[in-house]
Amino acid sequence: MSKRDYYEVLGVSKNATPEEIKKAYRKKAKEFHPDSYTGDDKKAAEEKFKEASEAYSVLSDETKKAQYDRFGHGFENGGFGSAGAGGFDFSGFSSGGMGFDIDLDDILGSVFGGSFGGFGSARKKKGPTKGADLRYNMKLTFEEAVFGCSKEINITRNETCPDCHGSGAKKGTTEVKCDECNGTGRIQVTQNTIMGSFSTVKTCEKCGGEGKYNPSPCETCSGNGTVRKTRKIEINIPKGIDNGQAISLTSEGDAGRKGGPAGDLFVVVTVMPHKIFRRRGNDICLDVSIPFVKATLGGKINVPTLEGDYEFNIPEGTQPGTTFTIKNKGVPSMRSHVRGNLEFKVEIEVPKKLNDKQKESLRRFAEASNEEVNKKKSFWEKK
Ligand SMILES: [Zn+2]
Ligand SMILES: [Zn+2]
User: Fold this and answer.
1) I need a surface site. Which of 45, 80, 330, 360 has the fewest CB within 10 A?
2) What is the tally of structural domains in the chain?
């Protein structure tokens, strides 16, 4: 699947500032979000919204943006670190083909509410950095997705070290000025080549560019400020969630460094198919077989719904392929909680084995209808 360039998606140039990217995304999000979109092609608008959200999720993140600028879409497959325990996918949620539904309140709220901290103000390398966003793939049964559920998951993530509270320093010690770079965080390297000598500036390795370091790092976290922890988190799946949609948990991702904000956790849902029900938006569809006599004479039939059988009266002379609707037996809308409908399509059962009595009745029926019985007629003779 070929993907559009993220800059093109948001309609900004490669040199756009974070402010411009944010503005462009906000505009697109407003235009195409299902809650505010006013045009006719809702499906296309939803796709555009997802596309813009995905583009923004990458271009608004310094690290991901840098990787994208260097490697393009290729970086999403494996550019992002390893999987943690428990099937945790650490890939930064942009793998191709994944659906992406973002609720304005859930995600835009958190994005614009500043969890992407330091936006607009040029962030220095050595300053606080935001923790990585994490993705968890969750399988749900058809019913769990329709009615919502609560699930416990185990995720392994970086958490702020409880002993040094993220500073990376052993209790009672302080950081000292780095002697390697004399506190500048940078080291000038001069290379002599046949073309002449070139000077380049490198980040100081000893202090990681911070200009200072701790001679006695915290033993718990080896000075990282964060530790790997596996944690149980309860996830409330809202009613009506659909295959490929994601819910976000603000600040449940990796802890930030040096007091930076935590990343978010995205739970991406895969809904397993149901034996008889199919989903179409918020409607549930199924096929119902009824005996041909019932279709002819009409009467009560039992239609399966997610909440047991529903008695339905089909009219006399119901034709194969006719679709009937039972209101409010579909999927609750995630936003309005209004339920969709259940639509069932009638299939007519033609009996395969009849006893003599039944055959006789049908022959009499045919005679009463002036049909010739047991005489083959070709389509062309019929008229
Ligand atoms: Zn520590
Ligand atoms: Zn240094």
Assistant:
1) 360
2) 1
